[in-house]
Amino acid sequence: MIRFLAFLGCLAVLAATAARAAGPGVAETFATDPLSDGRFVRQTAETESTFDYDAANGCLNAVLDVDRDAAWYLSAPFPVLSGDADLSFSFNFRITTLDDQALPAVFVGLGSTQHVNLGGDALSVILSTTNGQPAFSAGVDQGSKTSGGQAVLLSLMTDYLAVCRYVASNRQFSVQTYGGSNYLTLLGTSTAWATNRAAPAPFQVDRLGLQNGGGQLYDQTNGSISLTLDNLFMPARPPAIFSVADISVDEGDAGATQAAFTVTLSTPLAQTARVDVATGDLTAAAGRDYLAANASLVFPPGTTSQTLSVDILGDRVAEPAEFFRVTLANPVNAYLVESEARCLIRDNDPCVITVSGVEVEEPLAGATNAVFVVTLSATNEQPVW
């Protein structure tokens, strides 16, 4: 049996208190042991599979073996979900060791206790091995019928975020795996379809968790996948990014004109997100060209945009175009990639130089001055020549 060695730095932006949502939802961050209050249950009897809560790192360490019997770590049952409605879930994971002397498989996702006995339904991320490398694929179980997606290679000792979505309209189940900084890089997609059963529903599931393959003809000493699991959510929490775009506005002659910065969230979330935003001087100066502003923008579940309005101060002074900036900071439940945008203040007081004509009588002798008056149409902040 391979000894499990895993560690996973848990994703801080999602490290809230573990709790089951009311109704068919799960929000498990492993801040406390899920077995302690019945949020999850464990079955390992007659198997070499293990599930161990890691209190120091707030995550689950698991070894899923090639076993004749079922081993699972599942949420307490919630109201049955069927393939007639859209579903989603997500989780962080790291595969730490792999023994493919007997080909192992791990199923992470929505299912039931019957799934591992080849009689239940499931929407799963299947973690397995391809040519000695770890891989993931999408899997749909409908009783004894299965549908699988393309295997996408992974690496050992690498942190991933799996975002899984089932779309009822076309019965498509897709798994997208992200990696890199803040899990913002899409590494691959695998897709399967629930097509084998129409009634009473394409599938029915009532638990979220992970399981071994189970139902093997022989119990194998060799063959296992060791992994760390964290942040198990239903609905899914995909990587979300705050952004803000450059804008421009005409200055005006008096009073204030509104400049509106739209702060956007890249995807709607099931939880509230928040970001702080504040103005800052560039060539424009607060109090002279605009009024400084700051706010904490709150994005309730499902909201993807909020606005910060800034007063632009009008005048009748000709001046060059000027800029100030807004900066995003302190994101909650989302990330920042580009955190700054600029506002261009266009001057609407063009400075025009005119010169008047003049008539003089020619003197009989000597000289007479012809006086030309050169005029600026507006006061200017800069020297004019």
Helical content, roughly?
Answer: under 10%
What oligomerization state is this entry in? single chain
Q: In percent terms, what proportion of residues is strand? A: over 45%
The radius of gyration over CA amounts to 32 Å
- Name the structural class: mainly beta
Count the E strands.
29
**What is the straight-line distance between the termini?**
87 Å
Q: Count the DSSP helices.
A: 0
Q: Characterize the overall form.
A: rod-shaped
What is the element string, with H for helices and E for strands? EEEEEEEEEEEEEEEEEEEEEEEEEEEEE
> Any low-confidence stretches, pLDDT <50, length ≥5?
1-23
Tell me what you see in this structure.
With 385 residues, the chain is mostly beta strands. 0% of the residues lie in helices and 47% in strands. The chain is built from no helices and 29 strands. It has strands spanning 26-28, 40-43, 50-54, 59-65, 72-75, 81-82, 87-99, 106-111, 121-130, 133-142, 145-148, 152-153, 160-167, 172-179, 185-193, 204-205, 207-212, 224-234, 241-244, 247-250, 256-265, 273-281, 294-299, 305-313, 322-332, 335-336, 340-346, 353-355, 374-376. Strands 1, 3, 4, 7, 13, 14, 15 and 18 form an eight-stranded antiparallel sheet that branches. The protein starts with 25 loop residues before the first strand and ends in a 9-residue tail after the last strand. The model is unreliable at 1-23 (pLDDT under 50).
